[in-house]
Amino acid sequence: MSVNAKEYLQKAFRLDQRINSKLQQIESLNALAEKCTTTLTGMPHSQNSSTSAIADTVVKIVSLQVEINKDIDKLVDLKQEIMKLIKSVSNAEYQTLLEERYLCFLSWEQISVDMNYSIQYAFHMHKMALKDIEEILKVQSK
């Protein structure tokens, strides 16, 4: 089995994206719940259905918040694993580049500016750093 360092390192970014997506869903559900509450002041015979709609929305929001909390726990654990892996790379510059890319989720442009390198050199360093990570992962999987 081939070890793909880049895919492994990108897991944290993907999980972070899913968390952000769920947070956006909560915002949307909160907005929907607010719309439901404004209809409560209308007709008395519709209060049960409106109250039920609000309750359903609140249950969905709470459920989503529980999922988000679990995902955040996973993200923290995953970032700790990735940090440990990055720390096992001997080259300090590679470590910095990998941390900025895979833990801070910075763009290549920002990494180049931060490290005072051309973007081409940052790409070259990244390629070399990934080779180091792949070797470390191979050794760990044995």
Would you kindly provide a written description of the structure presented here, covering whatever features stand out?
The longest helix has 41 residues. It is built from five helices and no strands. The protein has one domain. The protein is elongated, with a radius of gyration of 23 Å.
- Specify the biggest β-sheet: none
Number of folding domains? 1
- Give the number of helices: 5
Instruction: Output the helix-strand order.
Output: HHHHH
Shape: elongated
Classify the secondary structure makeup into a structural class. Answer: mainly alpha
Distance between the termini: 11 Å
Low-confidence stretches: none
Assembly context of the chains: single chain
Mean pLDDT: 87
Number of strands: 0
Topology:
Elements: H1 5-39, H2 47-87, H3 92-102, H4 108-115, H5 119-141
Defining traits:
elongated, about 140 residues, about 85% helix, 5 helices, mainly alpha
In short:
The chain has 142 residues and is mostly helical. The protein has one domain (5-141). The protein has helices at 5-39, 47-87, 92-102, 108-115, 119-141.
